[in-house]
Amino acid sequence: MSESLDIDIPRHLPAITLPNTVLFPQVILPLHIFEERYQQMVRECLETDRIFAVLTLKEKPDEDDMPHLEPPYPIASAGIIRACQDLENGHSNLIVQGLCRIRVEGILQEEPYRKISIRPLNSDATGSSEADLPALRSRLLGGLHRKQRLGAPITQEIMQFLKEVKDPEVVADLVAFSLCPDITERLALLANLNVGERLRQLIRMTEKEIAELLLRSQLQGGLDDEDIDKN
Description:
Elements: E1 12-18, E2 28-33, H1 36-47, E3 51-56, E4 75-86, E5 92-109, E6 115-121, H2 132-149, H3 156-164, H4 168-179, H5 183-191, H6 195-220
Parallel strand pairs: 1-3
Antiparallel strand pairs: 1-6, 2-5, 3-4, 4-5, 5-6
């Protein structure tokens, strides 16, 4: 399966490294650019192919990461600038769309901004029949609908949008990006190249959250959250 929207990804990319941010293919990520180095990066991206990498900053660097002040996780995504709004103070607001998963092969430069060598990564459906992925998609959406009915903060707009997306792979990445709050789990989902396994991983997470919501409801005894101390 190809995630790159039929766009050739250069093997050398400018990169922005952000804490607690994981970009997935297909999804839309708004970014506010204020650092001078990234302002320059954006200007030069807009003059060329508009593509750069969004890397996730490691919170606990490994020993091998020590030469780099901002060590990234090795799996990330390339994105393309779909819209840019220049602000009077020199800052800018971007709308970035994820293109494909990438592996960071090396850091080429840090000044004036980070540039990396990358290898694009494609998903696969090994171990899944043609009918498996649509069935897993339906199972995941069913679980999310049940979570919503149990009080999880999932808007009707998100559910309706996911329902309209027929590609199981895109659904998996949208759910991982939009509804998975734990960054460790998001990084694991980004690194998992098997679409079927990715969907099953999301289903397991959803079923665990449903069980927790059911237990919470039983313990509350029908009381609202603000009245839980009365139980």
